Amino acid sequence: MCVTSCCRSPRFGSSRGGPPPGRKFGNPGDRLRKKRWDLDELPKFEKNFYTEHPEIQRMSQYDVEEYCRKKEITVRGSGCPKPVTSFSQAQFPQYVLDVLMQQNFKEPTAIQAQGFPLALSGRDMVGIAQTGSGKTLSYLLPAIVHINHQPYLERGDGPICLVLAPTRELAQQVQQVAYDYGKSSRIKSTCVYGGAPKGPQIRDLERGVEICIATPGRLIDFLEAGKTNLRRCTYLVLDEADRMLDMGFEPQIRKILDQIRPDRQTLMWSATWPKEVRQLAEDFLKDYVQINIGALELSANHNILQIVDVCMDSEKDHKLLQLMEEIMAEKENKTIIFVETKKRCDDLTRRMRRDGWPAMCIHGDKSQPERDWVLTVRARSAAGLLNLIQGRGRLSVERAKRGV
Questions:
Q1: Contact, 210 vs 152, CB < 8 A?
Q2: How far is the C-alpha of 337 from the C-alpha of 320, rounded, in Å?
Q3: Is CB count within 10 Å lower at the N or C end of the chain?
Q4: Where is motif Q motif found (predicted)?
Q5: What is the pLDDT of residue 399?
Q6: First CA to last CA distance, the chain
Q7: Is 101 in contact with 191 (CB distance < 8 Å)?
Q8: What secondary structure letter does DSSP report for 124?
């Protein structure tokens, strides 16, 4: 298929419905005008790169069903390719397979086995899987293939692949994976998030990056200021969509998606499948396939043992200290304690430090350098470290031991 460069004429991305002159902009995204797309005028692009491996062609329907049953894969939607059982069957380029070998990955996880052929086929998809399932590679490796089949970026072009993530920590983790797998084919990426200076992020965008991993708020800021654009974006990922909606990002997400051509490929990932996420998928995905790993209601890895100790409020501190003595008696253990309020986080940290525990706390009132320092110390500590974290899922800590 012949692929032409993306033209930046306003004829296929003109704006309409902007705010009236003189109106003050009070909400993020108010300055962004909704695009009016003319699909006939849009430059064509390729998004189906999948060729079924001969070994997969020989798989019977019974073999496919048995594999899906064993891996707890459920597929909803029509025209979904068969799952692959090895990385080589996905027929990734050698430069991708080389990095997989260096990372010592033996075989794809369940979400990767079904997600790779679906994403490489250019289909819109929803992936619902527990934390640690390997979803990051499920969308980044096909993204690299997608990018390498598009025209090179020209001056003033925005990213080809956009990954929206709820937090700075997740965005940085995704960028590290993008760097590891994209550097061999010279794919550039950047991470755009709040709580950090804008200058370096703007310079990265102005130099041109094929992959942009962003939190919705900071990306909206840059789009409104004209620091980047999404005219070249043909591969869109919504990572942890349920969490982004929980954090109130739905208006920003909708504003951002209105800036991207409607015939893009969109991949949405979520740990749960509430009605808000379903509605977002219905509004922005076309003829999508839904992949579910395990039960819909699960949002945490069922391989992790969870113990609940019910007690009175007055007993909690005593029971916590008892538990800490048991846990920290083993040399290799580290501990994270989640608490409800920032004050409780500070008070409990002070008490535990007075009792000799190496505790550090992290919450929304801490500066970004303080939070970075705590995470760095935790990562480098061999054992015996306590972290106390306040909030409702603000941070994603130590995902290095989980699947990518």
A1: no
A2: 10
A3: N
A4: 85-113
A5: 40
A6: 32
A7: no
A8: -
Other Cβ atoms within 10 Å of 360 Cβ, number? 20
137-140 long-range contacts, Cβ below 8 Å, gap at least 24? Answer: 137/112, 137/177, 137/181, 137/404, 138/109, 138/111, 138/112, 138/269, 139/115, 139/163, 139/237, 139/239, 139/267, 139/269, 140/174, 140/177, 140/178, 140/181
Residue 315 has what pLDDT? Answer: 87
C-beta of residue 214 within 8 angstroms of C-beta of residue 165: yes
Q: Which long-range contacts (CB under 8 A, 24 or more apart) does 339-346 make?
A: 339/388, 339/389, 339/390, 340/390, 341/390, 342/390, 344/390, 345/388, 345/389, 345/390
> Maximum distance among all alpha carbons in the chain?
71
For 340, other C-beta atoms within 10 Å of its C-beta total 10
Q: Where are the alpha helices (DSSP H) in 75-167?
A: 94-102, 110-120, 135-148
Beta bridge partners of 338: 389
Burial class (CB in 10 A: 0-12, 13-18, 19+), 52: middle
Q: Which three-class secondary structure state does DSSP give residue 237?
A: strand
Positions of the chain with pLDDT under 70: 1-26, 295-304, 331-332, 381-404
pTM of the predicted model as reported, rounded to 2 decimal places: 0.73
The strand pairing partners of 213, in sequence order, are 163, 191
Question: What pLDDT was estimated at residue 325?
Answer: 81
What are the structure tokens assigned to 118, written together? 């679906």
Q: If you search the block for the tokens 């349920």, which residue do you land on?
A: 242
- The one-letter amino acid code at 402 reads R
Kindly state the helix (H) or strand (E) to which residue 34 belongs, with its residue range. strand 34-37
Per-residue confidence (pLDDT) for residue 30, from 0 to 100? 77
